[in-house]
Amino acid sequence: MEKNMTEKESGINSVLLEHNVFIIWKPEYNLGITIIDEQHRGIVSIINSLHFGTQCSYVKDILTPTIAMLRHYALMHFQTEEYFYETINIADINNHHRLHQEYTLKLDKIESKSTLDKDTYHLMGFLKEWWINHICEEDRKSFFP
Asked: What confidence tens digit (pLDDT) does each residue in 93-106 have?
């Protein structure tokens, strides 16, 4: 028999419940390429974890390692995408590769300012805009011209 638990009994603090995720994964973000979809969800998860840390005021402890994680995970993801592009002979591979390089350069610039200021406002906006556009526009256009 299931017991109805109060917030206190379940250990959930109502303050924490107010911190929604920054990017809500939507079914339309799926491309139907399992490994690509999983990696995209992984990147969104890292971004949401950074958002949560920011909301709970421990961003100074996690900012640098989280940006490093985003950098490494994105590199792996970009290599996976480019492998697919080469394998299925995507015509626009050079443009997509350029977009990947631009992401890395932009992340470098924003990382410096965010780390110095311990402020993730511009970083979070960049990450959300770039990744949603990357998933919904650029990847969809490249994989399904």
From this structure: 888 889 999 999 99
Distance spanning both ends of the chain, measured CA to CA: 53
Angle in degrees, CA 48, 53, 57, rounded to 5: 150
Residue 8's pLDDT is 52
- Please report, for the domain that includes residue 72, its CATH number: 1.20.120.50
List Cα–Cα distances, 65 to 70, 84, 114, 115, 134, in angstroms. 9, 29, 13, 11, 23
Q: How many domains does the chain have?
A: 1
Domain that holds residue 133: 35-143
The answer as to whether 70 is a domain residue is yes
Nearest alpha carbon to residue 35 among 2, 68, 80: 80
